[in-house]
Design goal:
about 200 residues, mainly alpha, two-stranded antiparallel sheet, 9 helices
Length: about 200
């Protein structure tokens, strides 16, 4: 880092997020002497915040990690491996499977494919390999709508109506004009399965 972080000055925030076993840090902020330690997600999030790192900008790095894990997974056949890698980098069978079901953005009405993102409803990281490639686990969304959906600021009812989280800042809603511009179309039962997860787990309450 260009500006080093003295962790001992921030243990009031970091301390409660240390793992109970094999912690990389002592409660006074000094390092435990060993080679490698696991860093829990909550601790990593706190450290990134203290370092002023925008977590939302880590997507490219996360994609690289996901692809590496797929390549090293010996339980996946070569055909499925190629499909998963292509899906993760925004190409191939997954995008086609989604676009065969969803022809346009359900908020803006945009239908030109090059301006749409094939967005997972149930996140890639939480999905099985079958779910990752399932076209029903996806929506074709305009980029700014994809970002709101991915971060849980919006979702959809089973009948296709837009749901806007109360945590979406009003200024953003107005400037981005987050209004459903096309008639709502009900989702299929297969899509509703994934939407239930999105509303229950991801939608900010």
């Amino acid at each position: 880092m260009e500006v080093p972080l003295k962790v001992s000055d921030h243990m009031a925030k970091i301390g409660p997020r240390l793992p109970e076993k094999y912690s990389p840090l002592k409660l006074d902020g000094k390092a435990n002497q060993a080679y490698l330690f696991p860093v829990p997600e909550a601790m990593a999030t706190e450290l990134l915040a203290l370092l002023n790192v925008d977590i939302d900008q880590l997507g490219d790095w996360q994609d690289e990690v996901s692809v590496k894990q797929i390549k090293e997974d010996n339980n996946i056949g070569e055909t499925v491996r190629a499909q998963l890698i292509n899906a993760r980098v925004g190409q191939g069978i997954y995008r086609k499977s989604v676009s065969d079901i969803e022809k346009s953005c359900r908020v803006t009405g945009t239908s030109e494919p090059k301006f749409l993102i094939a967005s997972h409803i149930k996140p890639w990281a939480k999905s099985t390999n079958d779910e990752r490639l399932d076209g029903n686990n996806g929506l074709m969304l305009a980029p700014h709508i994809d970002r709101l959906f991915d971060r849980g600021y919006i979702s959809f009812e089973d009948d296709g109506r837009l749901v806007v989280s109360s945590q979406l800042p009003e200024a953003v809603r107005l400037k981005w004009d987050i209004v459903q511009k096309i008639s709502n179309v009900p989702f299929s039962a297969a899509q509703v399965y994934y939407l239930n997860y999105h509303r229950d787990v991801l939608l900010r309450k």
